[in-house]
Amino acid sequence: MSFYEIIILISKTIFSYIFLLIILKIMGKREMSQVSIFDLVIFLIMSELFSLALNDIDSSILHFVIPVIIIVILELVSAFISMKSIKVRNFLEGKVSFIIYKGEIDYLEMKKNRFNISDLMLQLRNKDIQSPIEVEFAILEGNGILNVIKKKDLLVEYPDPLIIDGKVNDEALKKLSLNENFLYSELSKLNYTSPSQIFFAQYLKDGLFIVPFK
After folding, report:
1. 95-153 sits in which CATH class?
2. Which terminus of the chain has fewer CB atoms gathered within 10 Å of its CB, N or C?
3. Would you say 133 and 23 are in contact if contact means Cβ atoms under 8 Å apart?
4. Quick one: how far is CA 40 from the chain centroid?
5. Which residues contact 100 (CB under 8 A, 6 or more apart)?
6. What is the mean pLDDT of the chain?
7. CA distance 141 to 147
8. Angle at Cα 15 formed by Cα 37 and Cα 41, nearest 5°?
């Protein structure tokens, strides 16, 4: 490798590193445990583009920059759409599954998610829980993390929100055997007329907990 090629490689590496830092900043902060399959695909594509840019000394850095910019635009558009649609969000980030619901193991949900009893027991032991009998809800998140609500800690009737970003979560209402008329009635008691005014709402044992849009 000539001195010129070494300089080009170093320059490309420094530029690509700074460029990727800026791109990741634009895409937003997220812990690795919160990374969805969609995010993982994006990171893998960007990694491959980065590798190709460094391996081919003669190629223009634009061969790396332009595809990454397109990917980021797609990511930002997808993030915007997912904020407006629960169905799109579930598709992109994964839908939560209740492995244990109201103290009972849901074998069908386990089978659907390829989650066996050994997986469940391992995850529970990692949370210092010795038996499923201690658990009211075990929720398999879209990123594969199992979150647990123990019976003694239970403050909610159902852990999934009733309203997310101003949109009604119909599945949560169904699980609670409630309807939109009930929800509107509860909102009215709190001086709100529409779910579109509410950023987050959850049904607790003592009533509706809400966080309105500012």
Report:
1. alpha beta
2. C
3. no
4. 12
5. 106, 132, 135, 136, 137, 138, 148
6. 81
7. 7
8. 10
Which residues is 167 bridged to in the sheet?
Answer: 164
Residue 183, pLDDT score = 92
Q: Which residues of the chain have pLDDT under 50?
A: 31-32
- Classified by CATH at the fold level, domain 163-212 comes out as CRO Repressor (3.30.240)
Tokens 């407006």, residue? 84
With contact defined as beta carbons under 8 Å apart, do 38 and 44 qualify? no
Q: How far is CA 130 from CA 27, 124, 150, 170, in A?
A: 39, 7, 11, 34
Residues near 42 by beta carbon (within 8 Å), at least 6 away in sequence: 27, 71, 75
Given a contact cutoff of 8 angstroms between Cβ atoms, the answer to whether 137 and 109 are in contact is no
DSSP of 188-211: HHTT---GGGEEEEEEETTEEEEE
Could you read off the pLDDT of 109-120 as tens digits, one per residue? 888 888 888 888
List the structure tokens of 114.
């390829």
CA 199 from centroid of its chain's CA atoms: 17
Calpha distance 185→203 (Å, rounded): 13
Domain boundaries, the chain: 3-92, 95-153, 163-212
